[in-house]
Amino acid sequence: MASFSLGKTMKYILLIFFALLFLMPVYVIIVTSLKPLDEVSLEHMWALPSSIDFSSYVQAVKELAPNFMNSVYLVIPATLLSALLGAMNGYVLSKWKFKGSETLFTFILFGMFIPYQSILIPMIQFIRSIGLYDTIPGLVLVHVVYGLPITTLMFRNFYANIPDQMIEAAKIDGASFLGVFRHIMVPLSITGFVVVAIWQFTNIWNEFLFAVTVTTNETQPVMVALQNLSGSQIVQWNVQMAGAVIAALPTLLIYILLGKYFVRGLLAGSVKG
Amino acid sequence: MKHVELIGVSKSFEKQQNVLNEIDLSIEKGEFFVLVGPSGSGKSTLLRMIAGLEDITGGILKISDKTVNHLPPKDRNLSMVFQNYALYPHLTVEQNILFGLHVKKTPKKEQQKRLKETADMMGLTELLKRKPKELSGGQRQRVALARSVVSESPICLMDEPLSNLDAKLRAHMRIEIRRLQKKLGLTMIYVTHDQVEAMTMGDRIMVLNEGKIQQVGKPITLYNKPANLFVASFIGSPKMNMGKAVFSNQQLIIEDKLHLSLDRAEAAGIPKDKNLNIGIRAEHIFPGTHDNTTHELEVINVEQLGNETLITFEIGKELWTAKWLGQWNVHTGDKVAVSISMKNMSFFDADSGLLIKPASAEREQEVVAI
């Protein structure tokens, strides 16, 4: 093999350096989660476990299982609803030009820039007044509403790339407003749905602030419960680490399995095919 | 029966007023009607208003004597073929063709029957299972036509359907579409910017410019008797040769260059005091023979097409083209003898653009009946 040029060697050194930097915490988490408690210490944090011990995982699962399920009950409806509503919004805003549609779209976009913290108190008051405080459906509602701006934006941009003439041909063929949506828009936007689903899934699963304010104890999703996972006298680091691995697993799997669709979907329509 | 009728129809957009201005038009059942005009003339807008894809700002649109201004496209019982076909990429050819019937919940048996008839007619039976991206341009065009045919709507609208095809295919499809229309007895409203398509396909054609009707009539009438300067220069290829003309001293002087002796009979009825423009068709600048040569002109360009020769001359500020049948041995720079006569000239009022007197040779000729 021909010798590497200096530039190429430098590039590889740099990449390996950054890869190691990013993987260091992952290494510590996995290694710590496999150690029995007495082996866990700051001085020996880099050391491999003397023996592979899954007891911390068992305990983490026991403690986190109900919260994990809460997260599942939260994320799946919230993702589906916000994707569906975002698709309908995107469809109307991109294909049916009515007076003020551009202004309406700008207003919806502004929603994206509202910091979570600023609306926290009114949101809690409202959720409480409609009796959905400390429930997963309440949290679903919050995430659906908060997710509308970004899902609307993504779908609108996606649909803008579908030629108007196709919609017109469908209209002349006899399809109604919903008919066009069902027969044309949705089948053509499967990639868009995947992108939005991955995005929403990741955000809602990892989200902390709304979860910690709207829910308590039993209704908490897994990320909040993870925070509270401490022992009474000492912190059981190995259980904490095991919990973190379990909590991170779903989003990791989503990216491994569907990651290529995400990139494909983001770039869809950027080059005329 | 008046199938489609427009009464005083106007269209304005927010950004642009009077894109179409007081259009009065009626199209008979079974007629092949062509809307032709340059880009931006409003012809596609007019078609889309008939289809229901654009609102009508003013005036009345009637289909089969019923006012349909506010009727949505799907209730107007018409079909449309678009310039870039607008096929559904995620459906097969078969599903594309049946989409309309599927959405209208036509019974399955009926769907299959119509599909088979249409596929046979359009030569698509082999391609039914393919997706649009696996088809050539011509095949996609046929699918778009099939989609239109299968709906069995009496009115078919076409928006420049052949623009995206190469010249050979275009010529072939022109014949196919015409045959299809005649066979099925459809009322077809066809929009194009190509005057050759208009001339060869239409029963009647309408020339539009800047939102106003320039002339409506049989193609050959528009060729022989153009109503104004715009129609005269739009219809016919090569373009009609134009020039400023003035009567002086028993002569007609064109572009201050060409002198023709005045023919009393021909000049009668033409006001001598107005600014005049004349037009003469390329095929009426005849090669000069021993006894009929009127002028000798210098050639500035020659185009040999094989069946005919196009020769360009400079006449004042204008470039005139003569069309001579056959292959003539003429070169740039040669001085050639031509025969130009006033009886082949059409006279126009330069200020209003309107026709004063058409070429009389045309008037005498008419269309020869066999």
UniProtKB/TrEMBL annotation, chain A:
Highest taxon listed in the record's lineage: Bacteria
Subcellular location: Cell membrane; Membrane
Pfam family, one: BPD_transp_1
GO cellular component: plasma membrane
Keyword Protein biosynthesis: no
Keyword Zinc (UniProt): no
One Gene Ontology term from the biological process aspect of the record: transmembrane transport
Keywords: Membrane, Transmembrane, Transmembrane helix, Transport
UniProt family annotation: Belongs to the binding-protein-dependent transport system permease family.
TM regions (residue ranges): 12-34, 72-92, 104-127, 139-159, 180-201, 237-258
Source organism (scientific name): Lentibacillus salicampi
Domain ABC transmembrane type-1: 68-258
Classification via CDD domains: TM_PBP2
Membrane topology of the entry: Multi-pass membrane protein
Designated name of the protein: Carbohydrate ABC transporter permease
SUPFAM superfamilies named among the record's database cross-references: MetI-like
TrEMBL record, chain B:
InterPro entries: AAA+_ATPase (IPR003593), ABC_transporter-like_ATP-bd (IPR003439), ABC_transporter-like_CS (IPR017871), ABC_transpr_MalK-like (IPR015855), ABC_transpr_MalK/UgpC-like (IPR047641), Mo/tungstate-bd_C_term_dom (IPR008995), NA-bd_OB-fold (IPR012340), OB_MalK-like (IPR040582)
Signal peptide bounds: none
Any single GO BP term: carbohydrate transport
GO CC, any one term: ATP-binding cassette (ABC) transporter complex, substrate-binding subunit-containing
SMART domains membership: AAA
Superkingdom per UniProt: Bacteria
Location of the ABC transporter domain: 4-235
Presence of keyword Translocase: yes
UniProt keyword Iron, yes or no: no
Keyword terms of this UniProt record: ATP-binding, Cell membrane, Membrane, Nucleotide-binding, Translocase, Transport
GO molecular function, one term: ATP hydrolysis activity
Name recorded for this polypeptide: ABC transporter ATP-binding protein
